[in-house]
Please model this.
Amino acid sequence: MKRLLTYGFFLLLFPAASQATEFIASRGEGLARTVTLSYPTASTLVNLPVADLSSGSWSIETGYNRLFELSDLDQVFVAAAGRWRKVSVAFGLSQFGTSGLYTEKLMKGSLGIHLRQFAFGMTASGELVEIGNNYGTLRAAGLGLSAAYHWQRLRVALMADDLNSPSLHENSLDTKPRWNGYVEFRGEQSFLLTGRVLLQRDQTAQFAFAQWLNLSSHAAFYWGIQTSPLRYGAGIELEFRKMRFTYATSVHPTLGFTHTVALSVGVGMHHQQRAGFE
Model:
């Protein structure tokens, strides 16, 4: 009991451990939290609605994450995304922690407008934190904006999250806005290079690099590395008809491994269907 409460108070005092109102992405651990802008998942679009999604595409994704191989820090999530003409929408729900001891519940939605080479988006989120059964519920709401541009093989995106500096309690520390910059370069045939920089006040800048490799029209492998803290990641994806299986993992030199498993179903969001991946 004491060990579990320690986890809860640690995560409450240091929200970076749970990424504040950032929604978990199924590929995140393997790609070092970079993003495949030309080939997003539903969970990616919850955070970054300006990622490329062709009109008529939709996807529903559900997954499970175990942080540092500790069952007390498990997380489950479900996300859905779709686009009709120039408008894309995404919505996600997640729960982190153990019910009755410490839990974080996140609800997040996004809206994107796609105009040829440009895209603009906004996000809104609500977070509920519960410690035990007798300490009540803490709440916070966050807002974010994003923009993207693509030119031939190059795509870039900017995202500002928690712009309103949400706080769980009047006496707790505010969550400082997070500024993310993303870049993607698409190779001639079967690979992508992705990068990310994260800036947040009073925090060390975080940099990440990843590579995506298509092994066949139904299988892909990816790997990544990030700084501050140093973590290495890798993952695989397998597709069959309208279904996709994702496994991603990362390792922290001191805290150990984190694993994510996800399953999704959808139309128009498979890597062999994206431009440049035939």
